[in-house]
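=== How it folds ===
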Amino acid sequence: MVERITGIPRDQATKAWDAFTSIRANGDMKKVGSIIYAVGWTHHSSGTQTIRTAAMIQLLLGNVGRAGGGVNALRGHSNIQGATDMAGIFDSLPGYLKMPVPADVDLKAYLTRITPKASKPNEWDSFNYWSHTPAFAVSLLKAMYGSAAVKQNDFAFNWLPKIDRTYSWIDIWDGMYTGKIKGMMAFGMNGVMIGPNSNKNINALKKAEFLVVCDIYPEETSEFWRAPGTTAEEMKKIGTTVYRLPGAGFAEKDGTFVNSARWLQWKYAAVPPPGDCKLDQEILARIFMKVREKYQKDGGKFPAPILNVSWSYANPNNPSLAEVAKELNGKAVMEVTDEASKTTIKAGQQLPGFAFLRDDGSTMSGNWIYCGSWTEAGALTQRRGTEDPSGLGVYPNWAWSWPMNRRVLYNRASCDLNGRPWDMRRKQVWWDEAQGKWLGNDVPDFKADSAPKDHMGPFIMNPEGVGRLFVPLGAVADGPFPEHYEPTEGPVINPLHPGQSTNPLAKRFKTDMDKYGTVAGGFNIICTTYRLVEHYHYWTKNNPMNVQLVPEPFVEIPVELAEQLGVRGGEKVKVTSIRASYIANAMVTRRIKPMTVDGKKTFQIGIPIHWGFRGIAEDAGKTSLNLVNALTPTVIDPNANTPEFKGFLVKLEKA
């Protein structure tokens, strides 16, 4: 069945499985295996379940909590982790606290809904660290609203927005296309190029009332009206007002990047912004100050959240990111004492860690997982110590890793039931009976004084204390156990269950521009999009050196398909989905090979995403000007709301 579904020959699949599981040959627990993935997994309508499958494999093999183990994401940007930590997604607050919903009528209802209760299966005990959610949430509210957040008003809980539907990236663009959203602010985000179904996004902007853009280059979003096929007469009819703000580039800013290992690393500005260009925080602060000024003057339907935002920066119009970083770490509003360590923090002092956070309003922290990153000792994110005594790659004094500088999550699992490391040559943490606590080369991710005989489960953020093969009701949208589904546009019917070939909960949009291709309609080739090492998304087409390395787009085609179509390398080919067409030179390669999927010979082609209708002079006349993501469908995973970029149907022909 695996061979039928994937096209991977049985002997090759078995060889790969045998190689990966060989680390546990004869019960050996010393070796470790890692699973590394990128957007080739996430860009599918069931991508979340694929990653869950990897987590299940690692749990079963004992590869979680181990140095060199785990399931590790390769990010496409330097700060994706930081963006999600800081609620760059619509359905969470900083530190992965859940967003309020309309049913959360007050703080008590909200905390009751989102705070898990311990569940202790059989002999296992549970730390259930999310039980401290009230302290994390109230400290966040104190950071947001300061002295205006008091117990008598539920710490200003009802000033937070409450979500009643999905506000994902594609939902926003769909809402603009259908007239529900009147405009947007795009900071360093080229939404037209990102797609999917880029022509729909272009048409959405044509219908908008306004667009505010902050970027360092003219790009496809800020100049959407220049898209190929837009006539001069049509341009005259576009009523969208575009505001361009003078932004700064990454090398002109300080602040932190957070990588996939959760390291908060402070970076310094290399050069100041040129001319009248402004840092992001100045632009946003000045907009906020003007909005608040208008509320103060004219009132409004709901002024309290705007008027009472805590904004006590030295320069309110241009806060330093050092001040913001301290605010995220948090401080004591009143004197607090940690009973376990007998440590007292005076009012106004930076907190040393989230163990000091309280739910009574005596502490504030803009993001509980960052608590401990900027303490009274200073900015731990700025550390650059290269010592690594354990030789495990821990580097404990290089920057700072959340939570509390732990480098490997759930590292209690690196030991046996008695607290003895599985591999004594590569010790991460261990139980010290004489001292009655856990010690380690890494910071133990565990209750420090919980002896092995207490049988506390190592997965301290789960209410059960143990790993999950099945997920609880409501934790994911599409079932407690992973299932294989074909893409919305797939070349075959799902061999496992032909009656339900695709993910029934994947969202498919239904406007006049949302169309989906089929093999019966002549779309019989699988297409995937990808990035090149030589380019960075949609940005480096403005940089002469990158353009010289790879000056023009191409369509990667397997040799067998090229021979079948009579196409030679360098010749123009036309790729057509049900939504759009794309023309570029053919790159005939042996890297992509045909596959036999469910007994049917199936071809796949690939197209890099980087080029569009904006760029530098070196690009002139070499690119198609059309956007690759005009080909891709508006279908999203029901959990992460990620588009299905990595598998859709097209036709291919000579141009």
